[in-house]
Give the backbone structure.
Amino acid sequence: MIYVYAIGEHAGRLTAFVKRGVSGAPAPDPATLLEHDRVVYSLMQRDTVVPMRFGTVLDDEGTIRSLLLKRRKELKGLLAHVRGRVEFGVRSDEVAAPVSGRDYMHVKLEAKRSLAPLAELAADTRVRRKDTAYLVDRDLVDAFEERARSMKLALTGPWPPYSFTGALDG
Protein backbone atom coordinates (compact mmCIF):
# COMPACT_ATOMS: atom_id res chain seq x y z
CA MET A 1 0.00 0.00 0.00
CA ILE A 2 1.04 3.59 -0.61
CA TYR A 3 0.40 6.65 1.56
CA VAL A 4 -0.21 9.80 -0.51
CA TYR A 5 0.82 13.17 0.95
CA ALA A 6 0.20 15.48 -1.99
CA ILE A 7 -0.09 15.84 -5.75
CA GLY A 8 2.21 18.15 -7.66
CA GLU A 9 4.04 18.39 -10.92
CA HIS A 10 7.48 17.24 -11.97
CA ALA A 11 8.82 18.15 -15.40
CA GLY A 12 5.32 19.27 -16.39
CA ARG A 13 3.67 15.98 -15.45
CA LEU A 14 1.38 15.27 -12.51
CA THR A 15 3.08 13.29 -9.79
CA ALA A 16 2.11 11.93 -6.40
CA PHE A 17 4.37 12.46 -3.39
CA VAL A 18 4.10 9.23 -1.46
CA LYS A 19 5.41 6.88 1.21
CA ARG A 20 5.59 3.30 -0.01
CA GLY A 21 5.25 0.10 1.98
CA VAL A 22 2.63 1.16 4.51
CA SER A 23 0.25 -1.43 5.92
CA GLY A 24 -2.77 0.87 5.95
CA ALA A 25 -3.95 4.32 6.96
CA PRO A 26 -2.12 5.65 10.02
CA ALA A 27 -3.94 6.35 13.26
CA PRO A 28 -4.68 10.07 13.59
CA ASP A 29 -2.44 10.56 16.62
CA PRO A 30 -0.31 13.67 17.21
CA ALA A 31 2.89 12.10 15.83
CA THR A 32 1.39 10.95 12.52
CA LEU A 33 -0.58 14.18 12.06
CA LEU A 34 2.60 16.19 12.60
CA GLU A 35 4.54 13.99 10.20
CA HIS A 36 1.89 14.49 7.51
CA ASP A 37 1.92 18.24 8.08
CA ARG A 38 5.75 18.43 8.02
CA VAL A 39 5.96 16.52 4.74
CA VAL A 40 3.23 18.56 3.01
CA TYR A 41 4.67 21.83 4.35
CA SER A 42 8.15 20.83 3.11
CA LEU A 43 6.76 19.99 -0.33
CA MET A 44 4.90 23.33 -0.39
CA GLN A 45 8.16 25.18 0.30
CA ARG A 46 9.72 23.68 -2.84
CA ASP A 47 6.82 23.86 -5.28
CA THR A 48 3.07 24.01 -5.67
CA VAL A 49 1.19 21.00 -4.31
CA VAL A 50 -2.37 19.93 -3.77
CA PRO A 51 -2.37 18.42 -0.26
CA MET A 52 -4.18 15.14 0.14
CA ARG A 53 -6.40 14.44 3.11
CA PHE A 54 -4.58 12.88 6.06
CA GLY A 55 -4.69 9.10 5.88
CA THR A 56 -5.09 8.75 2.10
CA VAL A 57 -3.79 5.28 1.23
CA LEU A 58 -3.98 3.70 -2.22
CA ASP A 59 -3.41 0.09 -3.17
CA ASP A 60 -0.55 0.40 -5.65
CA GLU A 61 1.20 2.44 -8.35
CA GLY A 62 -1.51 1.56 -10.87
CA THR A 63 -4.18 3.06 -8.64
CA ILE A 64 -2.14 6.25 -8.31
CA ARG A 65 -1.63 6.48 -12.09
CA SER A 66 -5.36 5.93 -12.59
CA LEU A 67 -6.18 8.72 -10.09
CA LEU A 68 -3.79 11.13 -11.81
CA LEU A 69 -5.16 10.29 -15.25
CA LYS A 70 -8.84 10.27 -14.29
CA ARG A 71 -8.64 13.56 -12.37
CA ARG A 72 -5.95 15.23 -14.51
CA LYS A 73 -8.00 18.27 -15.52
CA GLU A 74 -9.27 18.85 -11.97
CA LEU A 75 -5.79 18.46 -10.46
CA LYS A 76 -4.17 20.77 -13.01
CA GLY A 77 -6.87 23.36 -12.26
CA LEU A 78 -6.34 23.04 -8.50
CA LEU A 79 -2.58 23.41 -8.92
CA ALA A 80 -3.10 26.54 -11.03
CA HIS A 81 -5.50 27.97 -8.42
CA VAL A 82 -3.12 27.55 -5.46
CA ARG A 83 0.16 28.27 -7.30
CA GLY A 84 2.14 30.94 -5.45
CA ARG A 85 -0.41 31.10 -2.65
CA VAL A 86 -0.75 30.03 0.98
CA GLU A 87 -3.67 29.59 3.34
CA PHE A 88 -4.45 31.61 6.46
CA GLY A 89 -7.25 31.00 8.91
CA VAL A 90 -9.27 33.26 11.18
CA ARG A 91 -11.40 31.72 13.90
CA SER A 92 -14.76 33.41 14.40
CA ASP A 93 -15.86 34.42 17.88
CA GLU A 94 -18.38 32.09 19.41
CA VAL A 95 -21.89 33.45 19.02
CA ALA A 96 -25.17 32.22 20.40
CA ALA A 97 -26.93 29.70 18.21
CA PRO A 98 -29.42 31.50 15.96
CA VAL A 99 -33.04 30.76 16.73
CA SER A 100 -34.31 31.22 13.18
CA GLY A 101 -33.11 31.06 9.62
CA ARG A 102 -33.27 34.85 9.48
CA ASP A 103 -31.01 35.15 12.54
CA TYR A 104 -28.59 32.65 11.02
CA MET A 105 -28.34 34.60 7.77
CA HIS A 106 -27.92 37.87 9.68
CA VAL A 107 -25.01 36.44 11.70
CA LYS A 108 -23.36 35.12 8.52
CA LEU A 109 -23.76 38.48 6.77
CA GLU A 110 -22.28 40.40 9.70
CA ALA A 111 -19.32 38.04 9.89
CA LYS A 112 -18.71 38.47 6.17
CA ARG A 113 -18.89 42.27 6.45
CA SER A 114 -16.53 42.40 9.42
CA LEU A 115 -13.90 40.33 7.58
CA ALA A 116 -14.28 42.07 4.20
CA PRO A 117 -10.99 44.00 4.57
CA LEU A 118 -9.11 40.70 4.75
CA ALA A 119 -11.04 39.22 1.84
CA GLU A 120 -9.92 42.18 -0.30
CA LEU A 121 -6.34 40.90 -0.06
CA ALA A 122 -7.20 37.25 -0.70
CA ALA A 123 -7.44 35.41 -4.00
CA ASP A 124 -10.15 33.16 -2.55
CA THR A 125 -12.10 32.76 0.68
CA ARG A 126 -13.86 29.81 2.31
CA VAL A 127 -16.34 30.68 5.06
CA ARG A 128 -17.22 27.86 7.40
CA ARG A 129 -19.28 27.79 10.58
CA LYS A 130 -16.50 28.66 13.03
CA ASP A 131 -13.68 29.90 10.85
CA THR A 132 -12.75 31.52 7.58
CA ALA A 133 -9.87 30.44 5.35
CA TYR A 134 -8.09 32.82 3.00
CA LEU A 135 -5.95 31.92 0.00
CA VAL A 136 -3.30 34.64 -0.18
CA ASP A 137 -0.64 35.36 -2.81
CA ARG A 138 2.81 34.94 -1.26
CA ASP A 139 3.74 38.50 -2.20
CA LEU A 140 0.74 39.79 -0.19
CA VAL A 141 1.44 37.79 2.99
CA ASP A 142 2.99 40.72 4.90
CA ALA A 143 0.14 43.07 3.95
CA PHE A 144 -2.43 40.41 4.89
CA GLU A 145 -0.82 39.79 8.29
CA GLU A 146 -0.55 43.54 8.95
CA ARG A 147 -4.21 44.08 8.10
CA ALA A 148 -5.25 41.23 10.41
CA ARG A 149 -3.16 42.76 13.22
CA SER A 150 -4.76 46.16 12.63
CA MET A 151 -8.16 44.46 12.93
CA LYS A 152 -6.99 42.74 16.14
CA LEU A 153 -7.54 39.30 14.60
CA ALA A 154 -5.46 36.23 15.38
CA LEU A 155 -4.34 34.37 12.27
CA THR A 156 -3.18 30.83 11.82
CA GLY A 157 -0.82 30.06 8.98
CA PRO A 158 0.62 30.30 6.51
CA TRP A 159 -0.41 26.75 5.72
CA PRO A 160 -0.58 24.50 2.70
CA PRO A 161 -3.87 25.28 0.92
CA TYR A 162 -5.97 22.42 2.31
CA SER A 163 -9.21 24.40 2.33
CA PHE A 164 -8.88 25.27 -1.36
CA THR A 165 -8.12 21.90 -2.85
CA GLY A 166 -11.31 20.07 -2.00
CA ALA A 167 -11.47 16.79 -0.15
CA LEU A 168 -9.07 14.96 -2.41
CA ASP A 169 -8.57 11.35 -1.56
CA GLY A 170 -8.35 8.19 -3.54
User: Anything to note?
Assistant: The helical segments are 30-46, 61-70, 72-82, 101-114, 116-119, 141-150. The longest strand covers residues 2-10. The chain has two domains: 2-82, 85-164.
